[in-house]
């Protein structure tokens, strides 16, 4: 017992020492020069610069859509005008071409999403001997140069159906072909993130395989399928090289732009590009907002 | 949670699944020579057992012993390589999981993240075609005290709440057997103890058969009527908690369940109901009824809490088994008891190098490390095992068992 | 309902361990093949087969009027190579430069988002990828405005006399940035940067940040931690990103067309020229494609051998 009391006394003494002593000197904060600040934040500054690099053309495109250029090329700022916005279809058949692109995009989106989702399920749920080979096959279109895919498709169509028959459907075929890989990757990764016990739990709770799929698997994979669909739509609408070789005499929006650039770059091109950008951004912002709202309502 | 579960309407629910055999004995769960192999690896090795209806049964063992695989075969999520499974008279071996009147509470709960709590609990009822689920679900949610959270999603609930939803979701279907796959593993200690008591109470009230898989021996002993200790795909021993603890059948069970002090010896004599053993030159006796062998090599064992330390041989009650030559190597004051490690003069091949002794702190003398002591205990507390076993079986798994 | 009897046929007799088993209960699963078939068929017919038709076309000769015949006209290859080997070389050079710059810029960006992004991670990644959802042609054309002679960029570069230096070594032309190799590479880097950043980010994001703490605890400076800990762990992302950038870049020619000049022709433009200008050029164009294919296939195979196939997707 005596040992205890002596140790407590010692403890008291030491606390007393710190309490009665002088307050420790305020920690001197060195003023940092701007250069030092940059050095400490070099990563952040670099990233900001790279973001500027990535986003500048979009901004430029938006700004130039309000331009009224001198001459036929909308490269240099002249004066502000909303003309092009008020008459977006005034040049050539630009809106028809855009319409064709959108049509092709929808068909390609549906085709590649359906096929790709089925493939993704097969690849991620089942083990079978041909898996490594199929993996490579699915990977190749993502890594191949588009010109190879386009040029070889041209030779295929040329030698089978002749160059006269190429058009809408050959474009769609090519688009579905290169979108498939992206769909499979996207859906597969969503499937991989799904808790595998959930399907077992559904079976345990009397759901037949079909019910398990409809009530549990599908709702959980749906966001991935949606993302894959939107991705293929975007890839299809924006494609130039493969389309060029499979289009026959059809002209999609990218084909029009590429061809037109030789002769003129009307402001309408920037306008339509800006519209695409705004639609995409609104769509994504909308999804985020809906997601946040849903989470907050609880 | 005192509500009487029996008042919950059963409706036509179970009838949709098929024969339930509500009569006593009619729904015993029976495994007949069940084996499961994954390629060259045998996870479950020729297991046969009968679990009486209405009992709380535990499958206890370390990771990888095959207990979860066995459970999954009962639920239908895994097919046995050989053997058959019966519910009452009905063979269910080839039945798909969604056709069996068996439900599982999964280790990670497996609550459907895209459905709210109400729909999660109602899931099984809906799949069986029951239209009007509101009353049943609300009653069940009240039973687990989560009625106010019915519209939330699983991600918004705490671990303990999720666990209760998982139990509710399974129970509402009134299965013939409820399987629990280490459901309390993710909970903190206090919550776990609470849930252990709740689950036991639910089981007693409802009278369903519970099969609980766990690696926590304390949990198994607290909750179960019968425990099967599994090791490498086989059942080492089956019995009540007291049975397993006081009369282990093998060194594995002796070491896995609690702690044991084991010494190898030779049976010198057997007269009547007492066996005499020569263990490393020291003489021990034990009741024949508590020994698995009565000739030749024997492993004599005694639980640490049955042993006492003494410094003076004269103070030892007559008739006690005595071990001499021990020196205290570690003393730990636990509060309730003091736990000693006593270094014995023999090597690890023939017995525990350091014997454990737990003495309750009832005012006894505390022995310090370095003191030479004598170990003594009532011979009736000794058990005997077949001498041809590995002394360390089940002991290095203790870390997991003590979780 | 009466209790069913158990005896349905003869159950498999309990076998002592060691004897051969009766037929296992595994059902032959045809489902994956059915699900996979349409996709595989599509890719085989429209990706693999065209490669063969292309190879076959490359040894033909003829014209649109006369038709094309398979005459094993190897001259297509030698003619093509002698005429266009410069373009091949330029394609590889541009693709190489593009990949290097994409890595130099993409890695810090991916690192920043993965480790310093915190709760803004997804938003920042979206910011990287979403701009690519607008027409890439129009965005590339926008570079013509950014790099135009009247623009800020060119003015600054001129004032700093950088352009004198770069023109001397051939990157730029005179006082301009446009219509030069530099502009082409710039456009390529811009277009392919997201392709590099995404795999890098995926790989970096998986690294446990506590490994950095462990590195610091074991006497590593920030740079050393990066070199010894982060970089090796992010190698799968680096390799994947490099591959997904370099290969498509080799075949890219839109940037060269829009931002280059007649001296910066790449192989894509030559192939297009041969295909679409002159109907006798069809076999030569195919020969050029075959050469390009062989080169990229070789690179992909080397990569697949080193990385294994499961990492691909």
What's the quick description here?
The complex is a heterotrimer of chains A (298), B (403) and C (313). Chain A is mainly α and 298 residues long.
Describe this structure in words.
Chain A has two domains: about 55 residues, no CATH class; about 170 residues, MetI-like fold (Orthogonal Bundle). Helix content of chain A is about 75%, strand content about 0%. The N terminus of chain A is likely disordered. In chain A, helix 9 packs antiparallel against helix 10. The two termini of chain A are about 60 Å apart. A two-stranded antiparallel ribbon of chain A has the order 1-2. Chain A has about 300 residues and is mainly alpha-helical. Chain B has about 400 residues and is α+β, with helices and mostly antiparallel strands. Chain B folds into two domains: about 240 residues, 3-Layer(aba) Sandwich (Rossmann fold), CATH 3.40.50.300; about 140 residues, Beta Barrel (OB fold (Dihydrolipoamide Acetyltransferase, E2P)), CATH 2.40.50.140. Helices cover about 20% and strands about 30% of the residues of chain B. Chain B is built from ten helices and 20 strands. Chain B has a six-stranded mixed β-sheet with strand order 6-7-8-3-9-10, with helices on both faces. In chain B, helix 3 runs parallel beside helix 5. The longest helix of chain B is centred in the middle third of the chain and has 18 residues. Chain C has a domain of about 170 residues: MetI-like (MetI-like fold, Orthogonal Bundle), CATH 1.10.3720. In chain C, strand 1 and strand 2 form a beta hairpin. Chain C is globular, with a radius of gyration of 28 Å. Chains A and C meet through helix 3, helix 5, helix 6, helix 7 and helix 8 of A and helix 1, helix 2, helix 3, helix 4 and helix 7 of C.
């Amino acid at each position: 017992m005596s040992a205890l009391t002596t140790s407590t006394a010692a403890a008291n003494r030491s606390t007393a020492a710190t309490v009665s002593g002088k307050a420790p000197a305020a920690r001197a904060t060195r003023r940092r020069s701007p250069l030092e600040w940059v050095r400490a934040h070099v990563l952040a500054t670099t990233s900001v610069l790279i973001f500027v690099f990535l986003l500048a053309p979009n901004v430029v495109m938006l700004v130039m859509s309000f331009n009224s250029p001198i001459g036929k090329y909308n490269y240099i700022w002249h004066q502000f005008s909303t003309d092009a916005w008020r008459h977006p279809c005034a040049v050539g058949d630009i809106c028809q071409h855009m319409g064709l692109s959108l049509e092709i995009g929808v068909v390609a989106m549906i085709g590649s999403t359906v096929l790709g989702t089925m493939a993704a399920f097969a690849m991620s749920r089942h083990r079978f001997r041909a898996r490594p080979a199929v993996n490579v096959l699915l990977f190749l279109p993502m890594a191949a140069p588009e010109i190879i895919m386009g040029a070889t498709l041209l030779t295929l169509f040329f030698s089978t159906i002749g160059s006269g028959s190429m058009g809408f459907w050959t474009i769609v075929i090519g688009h579905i072909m290169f979108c498939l890989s992206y769909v499979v990757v996207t859906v597969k990764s969503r499937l991989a993130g799904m808790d595998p016990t959930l399907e077992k739990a559904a079976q345990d709770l009397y759901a037949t395989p079909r019910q398990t799929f409809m009530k549990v698997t599908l709702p959980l994979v749906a966001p991935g399928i949606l993302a894959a669909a939107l991705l293929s739509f975007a890839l299809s609408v924006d494609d130039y090289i493969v389309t060029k070789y499979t289009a026959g005499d059809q002209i999609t929006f990218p084909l029009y732009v590429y061809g037109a650039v030789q002769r003129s770059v009307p402001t309408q091109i920037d306008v339509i590009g800006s519209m695409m950008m705004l639609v995409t951004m609104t769509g994504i912002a909308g999804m985020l907002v809906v997601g946040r709202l849903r989470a907050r309502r609880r | 949670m005192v509500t009487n579960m029996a008042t919950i309407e059963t409706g036509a629910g179970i009838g949709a699944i098929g024969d339930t055999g509500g009569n006593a004995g009619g729904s015993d769960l029976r495994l007949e020579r069940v084996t499961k192999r994954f390629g060259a690896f045998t996870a479950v090795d020729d297991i046969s057992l009968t679990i009486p209806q209405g009992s709380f049964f535990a499958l206890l063992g370390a990771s990888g012993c095959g207990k979860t695989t066995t459970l999954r075969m009962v639920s239908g999520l895994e097919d046995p390589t050989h053997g058959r499974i019966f519910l009452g008279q009905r063979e269910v071996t080839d039945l798909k999981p969604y056709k069996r009147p068996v439900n599982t509470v999964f280790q990670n709960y497996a609550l459907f993240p895209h459905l709210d709590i109400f729909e999660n609990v109602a899931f099984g009822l809906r799949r069986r075609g029951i239209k009007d689920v509101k009353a049943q679900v609300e009653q069940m949610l009240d039973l687990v005290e989560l009625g106010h959270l019915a519209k939330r999603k699983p991600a918004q609930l705490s671990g303990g709440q999720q666990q209760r939803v998982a139990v509710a979701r399974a129970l509402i279907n009134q299965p013939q057997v409820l399987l629990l796959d280490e459901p309390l593993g993710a909970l903190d200690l206090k919550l776990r103890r609470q849930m252990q008591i709740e689950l036991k109470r639910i089981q007693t009230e409802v009278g369903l058969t519970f099969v609980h898989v766990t690696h926590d021996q304390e949990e198994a002993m607290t909750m179960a009527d019968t425990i099967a200790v599994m090791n490498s795909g086989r059942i080492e021993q089956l019995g009540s908690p007291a049975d397993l603890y006081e009369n282990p059948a093998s060194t594995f069970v002796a070491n896995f369940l609690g702690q044991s002090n084991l010494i190898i010896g030779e049976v010198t004599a057997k007269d009547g109901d007492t066996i005499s053993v020569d263990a490393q030159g020291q003489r021990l006796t034990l009741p024949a009824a508590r020994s698995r062998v009565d000739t030749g090599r024997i492993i004599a064992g005694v639980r640490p809490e049955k042993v006492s330390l003494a410094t003076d041989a004269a103070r030892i009650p007559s008739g006690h088994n005595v071990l001499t030559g021990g020196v205290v190597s570690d003393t730990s004051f636990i509060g309730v008891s003091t736990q000693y490690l006593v270094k014995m003069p023999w090597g690890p091949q023939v017995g525990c190098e350091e014997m454990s002794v737990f003495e309750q702190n009832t005012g006894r003398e505390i022995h310090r490390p370095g003191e030479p002591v004598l170990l003594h205990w009532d011979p009736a507390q000794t058990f005997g095992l077949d001498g041809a076993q590995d002394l360390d079986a089940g002991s290095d798994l203790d870390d997991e068992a003590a979780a | 309902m009466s209790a069913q009897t158990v005896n349905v046929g003869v159950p498999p007799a309990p076998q002592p361990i060691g004897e051969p088993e009766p037929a296992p209960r595994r059902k032959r699963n045809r489902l994956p093949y059915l699900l996979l078939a349409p996709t595989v068929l599509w890719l085989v017919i429209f990706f693999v087969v065209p490669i063969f038709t292309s190879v076959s076309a490359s040894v033909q000769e003829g014209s649109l009027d006369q038709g094309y015949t398979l005459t094993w006209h190897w001259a297509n290859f030698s003619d093509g190579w002698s005429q266009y080997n410069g373009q091949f070389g330029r394609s590889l050079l541009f693709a190489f430069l593009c990949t290097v710059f994409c890595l130099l810029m993409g890695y810090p960006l991916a690192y920043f988002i993965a480790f310093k992004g915190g709760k803004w991670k997804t938003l920042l990644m979206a910011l990287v990828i979403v701009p690519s959802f607008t027409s890439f042609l129009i965005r590339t054309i926008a570079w013509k405005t950014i790099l135009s002679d009247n623009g800020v960029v060119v003015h600054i570069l001129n004032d700093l006399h950088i352009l004198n230096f770069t023109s001397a070594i051939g990157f730029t032309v005179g006082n301009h940035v446009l219509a030069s190799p530099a502009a082409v590479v710039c456009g390529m880097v811009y277009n392919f940067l997201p392709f590099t950043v995404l795999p890098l980010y995926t790989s970096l994001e998986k690294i446990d940040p506590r490994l950095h703490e462990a590195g610091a605890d074991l006497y590593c400076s920030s740079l050393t931690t990066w070199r010894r800990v982060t970089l090796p762990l992010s190698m799968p992302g680096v390799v994947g990103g490099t591959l997904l950038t370099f290969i498509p870049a080799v075949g890219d020619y839109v940037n060269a067309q829009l931002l280059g000049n007649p001296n910066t022709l790449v192989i894509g433009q030559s192939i297009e020229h041969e295909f679409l200008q002159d109907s006798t050029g069809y076999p030569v164009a195919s020969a050029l494609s075959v050469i390009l294919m062989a080169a990229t296939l070789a690179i992909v195979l080397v990569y697949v051998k080193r990385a294994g196939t499961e990492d691909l997707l």
